[in-house]
């Protein structure tokens, strides 16, 4: 307990304080830029690499000792305060898990909590100076806006390391430079330094170094190379060595994170007795160039992958999902770092990770969250081999889904396509109905051409619609609805064709009803293809149709034959509800704008017209209920493979049981096969 002085509590002390306040006036925050952080005895700098001048690991000097900040509870608000301390106007982002490399010395601040309006980081809450349970693998960094505060004058300028930095790495073929097919997988290692491209001396060069270089260039692994050929070649060529003494552990995501020794300008004898370092990389399956390599890879047994990326606009990026007990789920971003992200990237046949993304940057998943606090060394062959924490109900939410951006080989073509399923003019959904998950490979005429798409390129950000499958299962029931209540539904073609010959208005139709809750988990709002000027007014129901067909509802036999169908026009695309931090943007009332905002969902209740399938003519048996959203691909989405939902159905002529509802890509291949073969499917008889 801190001792409390009598002065603080005496009436005389209180009277003197009030008197001084009246005489001298109330203190106000200083707006003089020279009186900011520097006057408080602290200095700030950005450190680490690779980085730009306005980003880096945040380091604070206190009592003459430089130290870092732990990323626990770090937020963009804290980054704003620190960027202003550094003389920038604001922050545009922040990083965790020592993205710019681990620092050294003290960890000055932990659990830093700022509102973003503080004049100094000393005004933010924390555990106290020097009180931390973190390691330097959790050092926080900031990305500031490249704009200086007006009149900022301070000694706390950004300090840049005096050693050169490796900006880029490339492989230069020993022969045929410029004529070799892309991607280049073997050649002399060249690094881009401030004064241009230079070679690396091969003295002490190791397989760990090659592993890091290949990862940077988009390749998952390296192989031995015939150095004798390149040494013979080196005797006939001039070389410019700029780097020697490279020592990598093998888990680094960038060569700059390895221990490097640069030649000085006055070094005359460079790499005596040595030669340029040479690396040979092994491309992943998507980038295998020669037929020999293809045959070799195809001959290996290919089991089902246990990790995949979803929601990305390009190959090698997306939300990380892992397979557990036959079901796909996401990974919580707690402790998510470049080492774990690199394990994912290499496992999928790409290079090391370029970015480890947190906060559902590639959209939120649905369903299970399988892993949390994944801690990889970077050497593991699979994410499942890394130490991790099994998730509990209170541990994480999908707003914390982890994602990655991987290093890709340079092919000369930027192909925008989901690496999990390549889109094709053939309907993905039709193959899903047959229970055959497919991987579409389009024409690949030459390695320079890369991957081509019959569809237009997807936008960098797009919507991603997903049906809440559990709600369908919970709300399904049968209703015998009188014909005199179905005139509007008949006008909108929501009944089976046999209804036309019914004895109107007498009799009834048997309807399978259920609720549809459609979430937008993408990175852009879902908007109708047509503008409101072309929407069609339907007098009977009193609403506009912004899309002729928004969903298909079907009852199928086990072999995929359709026995009943329904369809839903988007007569009201709107935000029914949203996540806590998201505001509604679309509603249909008063001819309002239609759409589904990112983080919101549109609910079609089971008791509204056309929210059904007319099963009047369906015989008792075992069936599949299928719902497909955006079936004609009229609106761009980042992922069409999750647009279909299927359920097992058992109908005895009076009652119906709907169970095992799931999104098309939610199960493993084996689980999907079991779904197709559940008892009674083959004979289509009630069991």
UniProtKB/TrEMBL annotation:
<dbReference type="InterPro" id="IPR001190">
    <property type="entry name" value="SRCR"/>
</dbReference>
<dbReference type="InterPro" id="IPR036772">
    <property type="entry name" value="SRCR-like_dom_sf"/>
</dbReference>
<keyword id="KW-0479">Metal-binding</keyword>
<keyword id="KW-0560">Oxidoreductase</keyword>
<dbReference type="GO" id="GO:0005634">
    <property type="term" value="C:nucleus"/>
</dbReference>
<feature type="disulfide bond">
    <location>
        <begin position="332"/>
        <end position="396"/>
    </location>
</feature>
<feature type="disulfide bond">
    <location>
        <begin position="345"/>
        <end position="406"/>
    </location>
</feature>
<feature type="region of interest" description="Disordered">
    <location>
        <begin position="290"/>
        <end position="316"/>
    </location>
</feature>
<dbReference type="Pfam" id="PF00530">
    <property type="entry name" value="SRCR"/>
</dbReference>
<keyword id="KW-0886">LTQ</keyword>
<dbReference type="GO" id="GO:0030199">
    <property type="term" value="P:collagen fibril organization"/>
</dbReference>
<feature type="disulfide bond">
    <location>
        <begin position="376"/>
        <end position="386"/>
    </location>
</feature>
<dbReference type="InterPro" id="IPR050912">
    <property type="entry name" value="LOX-like_protein"/>
</dbReference>
<dbReference type="InterPro" id="IPR001695">
    <property type="entry name" value="Lysyl_oxidase"/>
</dbReference>
<feature type="disulfide bond">
    <location>
        <begin position="114"/>
        <end position="124"/>
    </location>
</feature>
<keyword id="KW-0186">Copper</keyword>
<feature type="disulfide bond">
    <location>
        <begin position="70"/>
        <end position="134"/>
    </location>
</feature>
<feature type="signal peptide">
    <location>
        <begin position="1"/>
        <end position="25"/>
    </location>
</feature>
<keyword id="KW-0732">Signal</keyword>
<feature type="domain" description="SRCR">
    <location>
        <begin position="169"/>
        <end position="282"/>
    </location>
</feature>
<feature type="domain" description="SRCR">
    <location>
        <begin position="44"/>
        <end position="145"/>
    </location>
</feature>
<feature type="disulfide bond">
    <location>
        <begin position="248"/>
        <end position="258"/>
    </location>
</feature>
<dbReference type="GO" id="GO:0005615">
    <property type="term" value="C:extracellular space"/>
</dbReference>
<dbReference type="InterPro" id="IPR019828">
    <property type="entry name" value="Lysyl_oxidase_CS"/>
</dbReference>
<dbReference type="Pfam" id="PF01186">
    <property type="entry name" value="Lysyl_oxidase"/>
</dbReference>
<dbReference type="GO" id="GO:0005507">
    <property type="term" value="F:copper ion binding"/>
</dbReference>
<feature type="compositionally biased region" description="Low complexity">
    <location>
        <begin position="290"/>
        <end position="302"/>
    </location>
</feature>
<keyword id="KW-0964">Secreted</keyword>
<dbReference type="GO" id="GO:0004720">
    <property type="term" value="F:protein-lysine 6-oxidase activity"/>
</dbReference>
<feature type="domain" description="SRCR">
    <location>
        <begin position="307"/>
        <end position="407"/>
    </location>
</feature>
<comment type="function">
    <text>Mediates the post-translational oxidative deamination of lysine residues on target proteins leading to the formation of deaminated lysine (allysine).</text>
</comment>
<comment type="similarity">
    <text>Belongs to the lysyl oxidase family.</text>
</comment>
<keyword id="KW-1015">Disulfide bond</keyword>
<dbReference type="GO" id="GO:0006954">
    <property type="term" value="P:inflammatory response"/>
</dbReference>
<protein>
    <recommendedName>
        <fullName>Lysyl oxidase homolog</fullName>
        <ecNumber>1.4.3.13</ecNumber>
    </recommendedName>
</protein>
<keyword id="KW-0539">Nucleus</keyword>
<dbReference type="GO" id="GO:0016020">
    <property type="term" value="C:membrane"/>
</dbReference>
<keyword id="KW-0801">TPQ</keyword>
<feature type="disulfide bond">
    <location>
        <begin position="83"/>
        <end position="144"/>
    </location>
</feature>
């Amino acid at each position: 307990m801190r001792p409390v002085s009598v002065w603080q509590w005496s009436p005389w002390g209180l009277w003197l304080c009030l008197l001084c306040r009246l005489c001298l006036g109330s203190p106000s925050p200083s707006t003089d830029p020279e009186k900011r952080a520097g006057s408080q005895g602290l200095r700030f700098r950005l450190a680490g690499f690779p980085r730009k001048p306005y980003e880096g690991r945040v380091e604070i000097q206190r009592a003459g000792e430089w130290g870092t900040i732990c990323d626990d509870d770090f937020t963009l608000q804290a980054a704003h305060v620190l960027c202003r301390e550094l003389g920038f106007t604001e922050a545009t982002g922040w990083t965790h898990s020592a993205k710019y490399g681990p620092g050294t010395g003290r960890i000055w601040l932990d659990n830093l909590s700022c509102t973003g309006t503080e004049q100094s980081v000393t005004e933010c809450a924390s555990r106290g100076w020097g009180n931390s349970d973190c390691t330097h693998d959790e050092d926080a960094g900031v990305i500031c806006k490249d704009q200086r505060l007006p009149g900022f004058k301070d000694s706390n300028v950004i300090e840049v390391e005096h050693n050169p930095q490796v900006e880029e790495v490339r492989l230069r073929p020993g022969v045929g430079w410029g004529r070799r097919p892309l991607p280049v997988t073997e050649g002399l290692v060249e690094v881009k330094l401030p004064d241009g491209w230079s070679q690396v001396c091969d003295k002490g060069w190791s397989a760990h170094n090659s592993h890091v270089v290949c990862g940077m260039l988009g390749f998952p692994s390296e192989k031995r190379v015939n150095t004798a050929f390149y040494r013979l070649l080196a005797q006939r060529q001039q070389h410019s060595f700029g780097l020697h003494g490279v020592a990598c552990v093998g888990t680094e995501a960038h060569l700059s994170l390895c221990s490097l020794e640069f030649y000085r300008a006055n070094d005359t004898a460079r790499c005596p007795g040595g030669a340029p370092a040479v690396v040979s990389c092994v491309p992943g399956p998507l980038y295998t160039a020669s037929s020999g390599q293809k045959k070799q890879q195809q001959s290996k047994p290919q089991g089902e992958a246990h990790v995949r990326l979803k929601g990305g606009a390009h190959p090698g990026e997306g939300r990380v999902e892992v397979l557990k007990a036959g079901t796909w789920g996401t990974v919580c971003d707690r402790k998510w770092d470049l080492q774990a992200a690199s394990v994912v990237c290499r496992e999928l046949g790409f290079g090391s990770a370029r970015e480890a993304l947190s906060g559902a940057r590639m959209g939120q998943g649905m369903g299970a969250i399988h892993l949390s606090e994944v801690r990889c060394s970077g050497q593991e062959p699979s994410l499942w081999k890394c130490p991790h924490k099994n998730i509990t109900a209170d541990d994480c939410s999908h707003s914390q889904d982890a994602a990655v951006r991987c290093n890709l080989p340079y092919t000369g073509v930027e192909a925008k396509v989901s690496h999990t399923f390549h889109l094709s003019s053939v309907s993905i959904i039709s193959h899903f109905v047959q229970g055959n998950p497919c991987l579409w490979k389009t024409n690949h005429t030459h390695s320079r051409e890369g991957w081509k798409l019959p569809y237009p390129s997807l936008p960098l950000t797009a919507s991603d619609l997903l049906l809440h499958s559990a709600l369908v299962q919970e709300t399904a029931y049968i209703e015998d609805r009188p014909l005199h209540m179905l005139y509007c539904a008949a006008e909108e073609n929501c009944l089976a064709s046999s209804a036309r010959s019914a004895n109107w208005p007498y009799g009834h139709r048997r309807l399978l009803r259920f609720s549809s809750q459609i979430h937008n988990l993408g990175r852009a709002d879902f908007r109708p293809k047509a503008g409101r000027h072309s929407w069609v007014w339907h007098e009977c129901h009193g609403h506009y149709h912004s899309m002729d067909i928004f969903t298909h509802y079907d009852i199928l036999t086990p072999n995929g034959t359709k026995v009943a169908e329904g369809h839903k026009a988007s007569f009201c695309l709107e935000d029914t509800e949203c996540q806590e931090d998201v505001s509604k943007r679309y509603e249909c009332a008063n001819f309002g704008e239609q759409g589904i905002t990112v983080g919101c969902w549109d609910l079609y209740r089971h008791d509204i017209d056309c929210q059904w399938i007319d099963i009047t003519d369906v015989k008792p048996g075992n069936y599949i209920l299928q719902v497909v959203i955006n079936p004609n691909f009229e609106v761009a989405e980042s992922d069409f493979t999750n647009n279909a939902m299927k359920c097992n159905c058992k109908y005895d002529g009076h009652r119906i049981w709907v169970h095992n509802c799931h999104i098309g890509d939610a199960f493993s291949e084996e689980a999907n096969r079991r779904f197709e073969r559940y008892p009674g499917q083959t004979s289509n008889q009630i069991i």
